[in-house]
Amino acid sequence: MTRDTETSTTDRRSDRTKAAILRAARERFATQGYERTTIRAVASDAGIDPSMVMRYFGNKARLFDATLTIDLRLPDLTAVPTDELPQTLVRHFLKRWEGDPADDALLVLMRSAVTNEQAAARMHEIFAAQVAPALAAALGPELAAHRAGLVAAQLLGLGLTRYLLRLPAVTTLTPDEIEAGLAPAIQAVLDPN
Amino acid sequence: MTRDTETSTTDRRSDRTKAAILRAARERFATQGYERTTIRAVASDAGIDPSMVMRYFGNKARLFDATLTIDLRLPDLTAVPTDELPQTLVRHFLKRWEGDPADDALLVLMRSAVTNEQAAARMHEIFAAQVAPALAAALGPELAAHRAGLVAAQLLGLGLTRYLLRLPAVTTLTPDEIEAGLAPAIQAVLDPN
DNA sequence: ACTGTAGGCCAACATGTGTTGACTTTCCAG
DNA sequence: CTGGAAAGTCAACACATGTTGGCCTACAGT
């Protein structure tokens, strides 16, 4: 598509198609989930032959796996005052998702993790590696251990109902309304009493 | 299995196998979702031939549809004091799910609704027909209209993380801990301020 | 006993899928 | 120029799945 005469260090031709495959795969997995996404469709989106997908990623499961590299990009929660923590969280996820939910890897993952063990396992990893530590740093380890799960439940519940199920009662709310409604709820979960 | 010499009014032989198919289908759809559930597997579970499934239900989509008759069995929320409403809700859903999540139709539906339009539409119906009115009766229509979605998000978020994704941080909590942690959160969502 | 019908089984078809291997084209190093 | 590897295409295999239609079997009504 674009001119590419500028040869950046390692700019093999395969890198571009590999990237195109990944982009197409993310899109498909995101909108249709693992089972309904076909190698043929991904290849077609990427403008190449299905066998290329196999050459670069081995098989469907590994392609899927390559798709699931996720960085929640959580801000440093120790820098925010405790009482602003809930709204910071809600705002952070809303911001991520309001852009283009269809290619946010976290939603991709949610959609698949519900029926796919591999994806569910990856979800556990992400929670353990990113969410839990961030909350532990902000709240102290004991409290976080008991409450992090419920916080995740609330945030994922929002993602589920608004972006995957698209429940009208949730999609009609504005981001501001959601922030105003949900932040106090998360605050309540975090309150130690 | 059981003796059935007592012929209750309309006890055709087909009714039993039809019921067996439905039971098997619920179980499969619940644990594997729509796509990964095969007619052959359902038939095998029910101990009959795949073609029987077609005879009774026409096709896979209609079998699925027959599976989705859901009654949340929400208690009469007007009978509970407003400040006990959240814990009543949390307890109600926990009770339903703690029994055998695998054959609770609501979880079946959630699992499928994430990738299946038909199921998602049914989810909308159930929310509109059961959750929204119950909350409207207890809270008044205006408040309910703005908050019911977030309440649903929180309850479904619980179901998602605990029973579908099985996040350790949530599965390790006891029902009592969940009730104690989540009820105040829902209360916060309902607080009009 | 006879027969029609509902309940059930079997074998096959059509299709879509993941995956493979052989063949062609591109393109750069020597 | 030229050879050989990298990048890509093509056609097919093997298999699972939804679905169909023909056949068998039990059994209730006559």
From TrEMBL, chains A, B:
DNA-binding region: 38-57
GO molecular function, one term: transcription cis-regulatory region binding
SUPFAM superfamilies reported in the protein's UniProt record: Homeodomain-like, Tetracyclin repressor-like, C-terminal domain
Domain HTH tetR-type: 15-75
InterPro entries with a match to the protein in the record: Homeodomain-like_sf, HTH-type_TetR-like_transc_reg, HTH_TetR, Tet_transcr_reg_TetR-rel_C_sf, TetR_C_16
Keyword Isomerase in record: no
Superkingdom of origin organism: Bacteria
Keywords: DNA-binding
Keyword Aminoacyl-tRNA synthetase set for record: no
UniProt-listed PANTHER family: HTH-TYPE TRANSCRIPTIONAL REGULATOR RUTR, TRANSCRIPTIONAL REGULATORY PROTEIN
Protein name as annotated: TetR family transcriptional regulator
